[in-house]
Amino acid sequence: MLTHSTRVDTYIGLGSNLAHPHRQFAAALRSLAALPDTSLVSVSSMYRTRPWGVLKRQPMYLNAVARLSTLLPPKTLLTALHGIERAQGRKRRYRFAPRTLDLDILLYGEMRLNRTYLTLPHPRLPLRAFALIPLLEIAPDTLPCRRRYEKALQTLGAARHEVRQIPSPAGNPLVQEKISNPLRSSQLS
Ligand code: ADP
Ligand code: MG
Fold this sequence. Notes:
Elements: E1 8-16, H1 21-33, E2 38-43, E3 47-49, E4 61-70, H2 74-87, E5 102-108, E6 113-114, E7 119-120, H3 129-138, H4 146-155, E8 163-165, H5 173-180
Antiparallel strand pairs: 1-4, 1-5, 2-4, 3-4, 3-8, 6-7
């Protein structure tokens, strides 16, 4: 597999509103952690969010963001993410259809790209509180575009309140699990 010679920090948006979203996320995080030449650095809290951009009624979403450090080039990474989505039963029926799992590349280092198959940063990131909030939760203060995304979130106003952090007194089990052992998920489903 083609790889870069230097590691890149990339942020992946996770979304699910079908077939037990928590279980979908546990499986997806295991797969992300197992990607070649890639490590899972951190995972945000889980957020319960209102469906975005849809007219028909849909179940509420679970959203989160994972930070990876990878040697994979962005197109290879996207292909791998599509493979994980497919393995978890993702069907593309229509735009913004309910889904078992959506994995989007929000940021890939500071790369800018404008292709149909891959746009970086993700073109709808500044419009989506459900992606901005978990991203800003885990991104370091040194993230180059941090201020821009903080401002974008402020301008979203009320939409911010449609993104609810799921409280977890013992800390986020997905975060603890992936740090201690990315292959163990029994307590999550
Ligand atoms: P959405 O994530 O907007 O709900 P899809 O997951 O069906 O929709 O993605 C539609 C297409 O968007 C994908 O086939 C992919 O090639 C393209 N795409 C462009 N930029 C990105 C990105 N940054 N992350 C993920 N997919 C992207
Ligand atoms: Mg997607």
